[in-house]
Amino acid sequence: METGSVEDVTGLFKSLDGFAIFEIAVIFVFALAVVWLTQRILPWVASHLHGKRRLYVLALVPMIRIVVLVAALAMIIPRIIEPTLQNMVATLGAAGLAIGFALKDYVSSLIAGVVAIHEMPYRPGDWIEVDGTYGEVTHIGMRTVELVTNDDTVIWVPHLKLWDNLIHNANNGGPSLMCIAEFYTQPEADAYQIRDALEEVALTSPYLQLGKPIAVTAAEQPWGTKYRLKAYPIDPRQQFQFITDMTARGKRRLLELGVKFAKVESDEALKI
């Protein structure tokens, strides 16, 4: 019985000669080279583009990588295993069972990565917030996604974690990202005058994306009035400079108009 089992197992595999090993090595090295070049060349090309074209080029990186890896496996496996239905089912079943027990979380993240590449809830160039962390997606790996925050901190988040958390995508694969500058004034200030002044501040900003709407909203709070100036920068990567510009010039303009700012007594007031 044991001899028959050993023969069944050995019958799954081909006898590898020097040429077969050489072919497998060539396929493996070629696949790695294509993936490496893709991860270097396409981001360089994207850095010289703007708007949707930049985001489309960046989105090609993970897609090309998974296609190349799948194609390489499809070429390597028949050179190792006798390509019969029985052999393939037995081998893949045993491999799946072993991997499922030994590397459950790792494989789950890999599967989540494949699903993420297909569904595209985030792409390279998107600005997303996950579990309180906000940053730009710079790389989508097979297991993790790389975020770079405004403080130039690199954060690696497993794809599996993203399945269990809400994903806030600020630009969703497009070149438009809304920026908001907030101002807090005492309630007796002229709301229409403040609205017009803030709209002018946004309209004269060098970072403004023309053609996109500018909006000013006001909401009364127990301590005064909260104004939110909403506009879009030319490039999502300029969002922090844009917010700073609107805040600094907006504050200066309101002071010129004699507007008095409110004093918020607690952090809870900001959440109202």
In total, the number of domains comes to 3
- Main sheet record: 5 strands, antiparallel
- Separation of the first and last Cα atoms: 75 Å
Strand order of the largest sheet: 4-3-2-1-5
Mean of residue pLDDT values: 80
Q: Which blocks of ≥5 consecutive residues have pLDDT under 50?
A: 1-7
Q: Return Rg in Å.
A: 27 Å
Beta strands, count: 8
**Helix count?**
9
Percent helix range: 40-55%
Order of helices and strands: HHHHHEEEEHEEHEEHH
Shape: elongated
- Look at the helices and sheets and give the structural class: alpha+beta
Structure write-up:
The protein has 3 domains: 2-102, no CATH class; 112-174, SH3 type barrels, CATH 2.30.30.60; 179-270, 2-Layer Sandwich (Alpha-Beta Plaits). The strands form 2 sheets. The chain has a 5-stranded antiparallel β-sheet with strand order 4-3-2-1-5. It has a 3-stranded antiparallel β-sheet with strand order 6-8-7. The protein has helices at residues 2-10, 18-47, 51-80, 85-102, 104-119, 159-163, 191-203, 239-256, 267-270; strands spanning 127-130, 133-140, 144-148, 154-158, 167-169, 179-185, 215-221, 224-231. The chain is elongated, with a radius of gyration of 27 Å. The protein is of the alpha+beta class. Helix 2 (18-47) runs antiparallel to helix 3 (51-80) and helix 7 crosses helix 8 (239-256).
